[in-house]
Amino acid sequence: MSGAKVTSVIRVTTLSLLCFAVTVSSPVAQSRPGDTLDIYVIDVEGGEATLFVAPSGESMLVDTGWPGFDGRDADRIAAVAEQAGVTQIDYLVVTHFHTDHMGGTEQLANRLPVVHFIDHGITIDQGDRARAAFEVYSNLRSNGTHRVVRPGDPVPVTGLDVRIIASDGSVLNSPLAGAGDANPFCEGFTFHGADITSRFGDAEDQRSVSAFIGFGRFRTLIMGDLTWNKEHALMCPDNKIGTADLYLVSHHGSDTSGSEALVHGLQPRVAVMNNGPRKGGAVQTFQILQAAPSLEQLWQNHYAIPAGDEYNMPERFIANLQDEAPTQDTPAVHMEAAHGIKVSARRDGSFTVTNSRNGFSRSYGPRN
Ligand SMILES: [Zn+2]
Ligand SMILES: [Zn+2]
């Protein structure tokens, strides 16, 4: 979402609290280091930043969180990278040019080298602040290699099958290998119409770079803030993606994305939502997820205040709990303690999800 006014107080981030220590309590045998695709859903207080580390050691970071706050989000990303043994970002995918996705790039680049920049081209936003933020990013990407991607393009992370499925408002026009079956969840799809374009048709959001990531039989995808209507283009009438074991919940869990056609059509077994306390985490999103016939578990990066206890998962599945009442001046709580959700995926399609706050983890076997 664009235009969020971040006026929160700045406090020191205690990096020692940002720990992705894995406490495994599952019957599934653990792989040796280097045998797993590790996915770190990093808490950037309602922005997005997700780090993928391939068994080859190559890294792909999707989005960089917010700017400001003394480099809070870049610090958090750098701390996770260090834990993961990542010394440079091999591929930085900036899904779109909103501040909560692109904003931390400059501060991150001061902490970790970024080799390849991948995005959808140029911003569509015309506001002075948006243009200025884009200029900063644009200068940074000229320091590395820069590639504008289109649907169907690969991202050559060694050991992974990363394929762009949407970019700059276009989506795949032919299905991924093995996909393309009719999607029964398209029935009743309601388009978000032009009369509510300002809310549902945000020009940058609908240009989000989205990617499919395959690792052996394990399948997931990441979509930035891709909008509801674009989901229809991807998933209807034929499902061009196929299934996803893990659904990284689109658009922070906002109700301007996350249709049944997408969420039920992917048949995810597990979903991880990178929401903030008051960002995303919409009631409708919880309802659609909870109604997904295939879904075994939803994990959350934050307790979603507007959804309340009726919809939020039990605490053990939530990385950051709500323990401080937000005010107008301090909308972003948990600034001193940032926890996250880690997913370790194996080639056979099995995976383990861990909550870094409490070390609680659960493993999921290969899809039948
Ligand atoms: Zn956005
Ligand atoms: Zn966003």
Overview of the molecule:
This protein has a single domain, classed as Ribonuclease Z/Hydroxyacylglutathione hydrolase-like (Metallo-beta-lactamase, Chain A, 4-Layer Sandwich), CATH 3.60.15. The protein has nine helices and 18 strands. It has helices at residues 72-83, 99-102, 105-109, 128-141, 197-200, 228-235, 260-263, 283-290, 308-311, and strands at residues 37-41, 50-53, 59-62, 89-93, 114-119, 145-148, 154-155, 161-167, 170-171, 210-215, 218-222, 246-248, 270-273, 297-302, 318-320, 341-345, 351-355, 361-364. The strands form two sheets. A nine-stranded mixed beta sheet has the order 6-5-4-3-2-1-16-17-18, with helices on one face. Strand 14, helix 9 (308-311) and strand 15 form a beta-alpha-beta unit. The radius of gyration is 19 Å and the shape is globular. One zinc ion (ZN) binds at residues 1, 48, 98, 100-101, 225, 252. One zinc ion binds at residues 1-2, 96, 98, 204-205, 225.
Low-confidence stretches: 1-32
What is the CATH topology classification name?
Metallo-beta-lactamase, Chain A
Q: What sequence of helices (H) and strands (E) makes up the elements?
A: EEEHEHHEHEEEEHEEHEHEHEHEEEE
- Provide the β-strand percentage band: 15-25%
Report the sheet with the most strands, covering strand number, pairing sense and barrel closure.
9 strands, mixed
CATH superfamily: Ribonuclease Z/Hydroxyacylglutathione hydrolase-like
Integer count of domains: 1
Structural category: alpha/beta
Q: Using the alpha-carbon principal axes, give the shape.
A: globular
Known CATH architecture: 4-Layer Sandwich
N-to-C CA distance: 37 Å
Q: Roughly what percent helix? A: 10-25%
